[in-house]
Amino acid sequence: MERQHFALLLSGGGARAAYQVGVLKALTHLLPRNHGLPFPIICGNSAGAINATALACYASCYHLGVRKLEWVWRNFHTAQVYGANRRDVFGYLLRNYLQSWQQTGTNKYPTSLLNNAPLRKLLRNTLDFQRIDRNILRGQLRAICVTASSYSSHDSVSFFQGQSDIAPWQREQRRGVACQLDTEHLMASSAIPLVFPTVKLDDEFFGDGSVHQLSPLSPPIHLGARKILIIGVEQPEKPQRFSQLSRFPRSAEIAGHLLDTLFADTLHADLERAERVNQTLAIMNDKQRQQTQLKPIQALVLNPSVNFTALANRHYHHLPSGIRSLLRLIGVKQASDSSLLSYLLFEQAFCRDLIKLGWQDGMDRQQEIKQFLEL
Asked: Cα 53 to the chain's mean position, in Å?
């Protein structure tokens, strides 16, 4: 495969992942209509894993894959992801409460704040996983990787499906496992802790891939990547939070802070490590480089130019009544400073705004992306 060292990495972020679709759409302007995937290695975690898998299903035609993905996100409703009316939300919480009175060994269902069973149905109806194998056999895709966090072993586990020369890996608190990807891998990767239910895979319990992910660049590198395009969802500015010393932070504000940390901070640390490795390799001679077995890694990071929290607040009224009532109980209102809303607002009006923003940001950096991907 000619471009086997190019990779795409999509981070998590719940509803924020609609932004990634806009950036991916901007890339279609750089490619002919019948062009295949410009990055044969695709990795993702959380909601980014779902976007990554959708692209892998249409690796033979990048334009078609992006159009399919955009159609889903542009027509999203929260009820397609989790139960959101009053009956669904509070009925689910009541079931969890009643289950808590049972003996520990008799719990048959995972507990969580929201029930994301509708997402499982949506994924089964929209993704054809058999296409992934065909694209790999035809050389149109080198590998697709979905990362989830094992609550059982505390490892970051990267489930990958790829060409036969790719070997599994084992490092400190992270491992790569060859498998046939299916819906349950995506459910595990996108199971935000406490918000969505834990998923059981191969005798281990899994949650969101951003948990325990100490090295987000590790999966694409192990799959052979040397140039990694990263589409994140980190906010452009980080104003000082909890500055009103006259009151304590609300639970919703702390929850938003924890999610922001979960989905962004480890990537910065890993990019910094990669840059230090690149600088070290640059001052070594050829013999020393061969002894280290390290190779330089180039990364281009694309993040939104507009703050999602303020944008989500403008769409607060689009939330279904059940989830709006639940959020109000924990302090999330229309003018709240919590970023939690932007993770849970799977409504088409908000998603369309994020797609538009992603497209504009991608177009603004089009020449930079074109040069990086050598198109």
From this structure: 11
> Rounded distance, CA 174 to CA 147, Å?
10
Q: What are phi and psi of 150, to 5 degrees?
A: -85, 115
208 noted as active-site residue: yes
As given in the structure block, the two tokens for residue 223 are 């799959």
Which tens digits make up the pLDDT trace of 173-219?
899 999 999 999 999 999 988 889 999 998 899 988 887 777 889 99
pTM given for the model: 0.90
Closest CA to 9 of 221, 173, 186: 221
3-state secondary structure 243-262: CCCCCCCCHHHHHHHHHHHH
User: Virtual CA dihedral for 45, 75, 184, 22, nearest 10 degrees?
Assistant: -20
Catalytic pick among 149, 155, 190, 208: 208
Q: Give percent helix, percent strand, percent coil of the chain, each to the nearest 5.
A: 45, 15, 40
CA 173 to chain centre: 20
Bridge-partner residues for 147, per DSSP? 45, 158
**The token pair that represents 357 in the structure block:** 């923003």
Cα→Cα distances 237→248, 251, 262, 266, 313, Å: 23, 22, 17, 17, 17
Catalytic pick among 11, 46, 189, 215: 46
The answer to whether 44 and 188 have CB atoms below 8 angstroms apart is no
Mean pLDDT for 285-296 is 79
Asked about 260 being catalytic, the answer comes back as no
Which residue in this structure is represented by tokens 């779902």?
Answer: 50
Residue in this structure with the two tokens 């799959």, named with its chain if needed: 223
- The H or E element spanning position 71 is helix 62-74
Q: What SS3 string covers 325-338? A: HHHHHCCCCCCCCC
